[in-house]
Structures are given as structure tokens and as C-alpha cells.
Amino acid sequence: MKELLRAHFEKIIDLTDSEFEYISNHFKHKKIIKHQFLVQEGEIVKNEFFVVKGCLKSYMVDSDNKMHVLQFALPDWWITDYHALYRQIPSSLYIDPVESAEVFVISLQDKEKLCEEMHKVEHFFRKKTNLGYVGLQQRVLGLIKTDARDRYEQLIKQYPALFQMVPKQLIASYLGVTRETLSRLYKAPK
Predict the structure, then answer these.
(1) CA angle 59, 89, 71 (to 5 degrees)
(2) How many CA atoms lie within 13 A of 73 on its CB side?
(3) Are strands 101-107 and 28-32 parallel, antiparallel or unpaired?
(4) Which one, of 186, 187, 158, 189, lies nearest residue 172 by Cα?
(5) CA-based angle 169:161:41, to the nearest 5?
(6) If residue 186 lies in a helix (H) or strand (E), which one and from where to where?
(7) Is residue 2 classed as helix, strand or coil in its secondary structure?
(8) Are 20 and 3 in contact (CB under 8 A)?
(9) What are the b/e assignments for 63-93, b being 16+ CB within 10 Å?
(10) What is d(CA 132, CA 92) in angstroms, rounded to the nearest whole number?
């Protein structure tokens, strides 16, 4: 499993064996089952999660008890409630697996320590943060500028594996449509 983490880091930075060993010692491997929370609304978030296997979702539940999916995280992706993590305030999100999953967990404290000690690790996390921000910006712009059909088609094109792993009800929530609307989009000719 650690080779997946190393390959992920080495997409951006080069690491010696001893550097990677030191970095990887700051991560804990965790297996999680469906419906087991990594983050729950109202709790202080201390960790960030790198997905090794499975699919996770982050979401909020509104006052009408309706779920709103903000993000899916497939293997090779990071996930947490970043607002709660960096501000050390109670989370407004839930994060749990769509199916059984495996993650590497790093605490904010250990991440900050590594970034302080190793410039290349700080560079890695800065690049990942920048790419995450760009992705979030594109998602918000997509919700504003495109209709449900275009959002659906873009999601299929970008992440076809999601449709094999994630129930349609969750995909509908992510796209901001009802399950019935998603069914119409799913059945309609393109």
C-alpha cells in the first residue's frame, strides 16, 4: 500500500528511499467500512485522508434532512473538511465511504511538521492545494453556468468509474438534481 502513497508523492516531487520512509512514518493506514464516519458534523477535524481503495463522499445534511454531496474521493485523491481542519472549528460536513475503503491518515500536526522540515513536502502540498482549489472553482462555475444535462455528461466523461461505484441517488445529490431527473438524463439519448 505504501507504494501507492509514494507514487502519488512522486507525481510532483522526487524522493529518496529514506525521505519517503520518514514521510510515510507520519501516516497511518486505516480500513473503513460502509457507513463508518471519518468526519462527523460538529466534531473537530484533526486529519486529512488519502484514498487508497474505494470511494468516499463528503456531504452536509440540511434542516430538511436532505443530503448535499460536495465531493467524491476516489483512489489517489485527498479528502477532509478543510475549513474545519485549518480553522480548528467544528465540522459542518460528514465524510464516510460509499463502499468499504482504505485510506492513509495524516494529522494536521504531522503534515505541518513535515512541511516545516522538508521544503519538497511543502511544495507537494501547495501544488495539491492549488489543484484542489482549481477543481472546486470549476465545480462551482459548472453549477452556475451549465444545466443538469451538461453537468451529467461532463461527470461521465471525467469520472466514468464513479458510475460503477456510486449509487445514482448520490450522483444526483452531487449534480444538484433529484433522483428522478437523473433517471431521465440517464435514459435519454445523448
Answers:
(1) 20
(2) 26
(3) antiparallel
(4) 186
(5) 50
(6) helix 179-187
(7) helix
(8) no
(9) eeeeeebbbbbbbebbbbbbebbeeeeebeb
(10) 19
pTM score, two decimals? 0.91
In one-letter notation, the amino acid at residue 147 is D
Q: Which residues pair with 67 in a beta bridge?
A: 61
Q: Hey, how many other C-beta atoms are within 10 angstroms of the C-beta on 114?
A: 20
> Minimal CA–CA distance to 58: which of 45, 44, 68?
68
pLDDT at 189: 55
In angstroms and rounded to an integer, the radius of gyration of the C-alpha atoms of the chain is 18
Which residues, other chains included, contact 186 with Cβ-Cβ below 8 Å and sequence gap of 6+?
A: 152, 168
d(CA 104, CA 2): 9
Res. 76: pLDDT tops 90: yes
Phi and psi, residue 139, nearest 5° = -65, -45
* Tens-place pLDDT, residues 131-184: 999 988 988 898 889 988 898 888 989 888 888 899 989 999 999 888 888 888
Residues 40-71 have pLDDT tens digits of 999 999 999 999 999 999 999 999 999 999 99
CA proximity to 38, closest of 21, 16, 23, 59: 59
